[in-house]
């Protein structure tokens, strides 16, 4: 009986210690920084940050929204000093004091059309 209690205690302690070391899988990697070259970025300085588009949410029957710098922004909404003026399939347009800024979902990805190889059918 004592051995069983000790075993249960050890399992409970191990489970608690293991849960303390688990990392949230939705968090960015350890070296990832969102300050975009700014050394002291705070929430009050959001207007000074370069805006970054995370996703565009389109729901049936609702107006699309964009997630920019971690904030959900509707058409006409503000993110810092910028105003969201257009939401497309893969990009948004912001208007600010310095003019217009176009943000794309995958800015480093160049889309290329697929060419069919003679004699092969594409699926």
Note down, in words, how this protein is organized.
The chain has 123 residues and is α+β, with helices and mostly antiparallel strands. It has a domain at 47-104: Roll (SH3 type barrels), CATH 2.30.30.830. 16% of the residues lie in helices and 27% in strands. It contains one helix and seven strands; from the N terminus they run H-E-E-E-E-E-E-E. The strands form two sheets. The chain has a four-stranded antiparallel β-sheet with strand order 4-5-6-7, with no helix packed on it. A three-stranded antiparallel β-sheet has the order 1-2-3, with no helix packed on it. The radius of gyration is 24 Å and the shape is extended. Mean pLDDT is 76; it is low at 38-44.
What best-fitting shape do the alpha-carbon axes yield? extended
Question: Looking across the biggest beta sheet, what order are the strands in?
Answer: 4-5-6-7
**Which class best fits the helix and strand makeup?**
alpha+beta
CATH class of the domain at 47-104: Mainly Beta
If helices are DSSP runs of H or I spanning 4 or more residues, what is the number of helices? 1
What CATH calls the topology of the domain at 47-104 is SH3 type barrels
In the predicted model, the low-confidence regions spanning at least 5 consecutive residues are 38-44
Strand proportion: 25-35%
Rg over CA atoms, rounded to whole Å, is 24 Å
Helix coverage percent of residues?
A: 10-25%
Please name the CATH architecture of the domain at 47-104. Answer: Roll
Straight-line distance between termini: 65 Å
Order of helices and strands: HEEEEEEE
Could you report the average pLDDT, rounded to the nearest whole number?
Answer: 76
